[in-house]
Design brief:
Blueprint: H1 6-18, H2 23-34, H3 42-55, H4 73-83
Helix pairs in contact: 1-2, 1-3
Pfam families: DUF4817
Protein name: DUF4817 domain-containing protein
Organism: Parnassius mnemosyne (clouded apollo)
Length: 84
């Protein structure tokens, strides 16, 4: 999966609204502007637009991704007791 920079996401939103909400024209304009062969998928554009309309931002939502367990003395001791 491609990760798009904030500048690319802003440009995708700009292309979407300037092309009268056409995903195909958005993809075409993206390829032409960035001089690349591949463009964002239609589902990626739709989810980006939905997020922009809901939150007013193209940034990643906070709190996404894997949560790491915190290694504390209590946790280490609990695991050591469990494994004995």
């Amino acid at each position: 999966m491609n990760t798009y920079s904030p500048q690319q996401r802003i440009k995708i939103i700009d292309f979407y609204y300037s092309s009268q909400r056409s995903i195909v024209l958005t993809q075409r304009n993206y390829r032409r502007f960035f001089n690349v062969r591949s463009a964002p998928t239609s589902s990626m554009i739709a989810s980006l637009v939905r997020r922009f309309e809901e939150l007013g931002s193209v940034a990643d939502r906070p709190g996404r991704g894997a949560h790491r367990n915190i290694r504390t003395v209590d946790n280490v001791e609990a695991i050591q007791q469990c494994c004995k």
